[in-house]
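Worked Example 4.2. Consider the chain below.
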Amino acid sequence: MFIKSDVNFKSEVLKKDWSLFELMGVERYITEALKESKFNVTFEELQTAITTHNDYAMLNVLDGRKVIIDGFKLDHFALKGNNDLIAIFEDENENIKTYYVEGV
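Applying the procedure from the previous section yields the following structure tokens:
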């Protein structure tokens, strides 16, 4: 489901806002990807909320403890300008790892 990426928040163009159509598509995309993943979690269990950050819009994950990779928990999702979906993981020291969300 997650493919390590080299996204750098300082140099990448991430969308500053999402249309309702984009939000619904992202939710469906994540739902289907989770069904095919090794994580035993549904989209609803992640408890998400769309918010706008100073630099970009994001789908925050309120319960990322269910999706952990190498000690990094799922924090939020963002869309690149080309509509690639990025998953952002953080560790307890707020270090970040980014992953592309693989299509199903």
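Residues 75 and 89 are 5 Å apart (CA to CA). The chain has a mean pLDDT of 86. Compare this with Example 4.1 before moving on.
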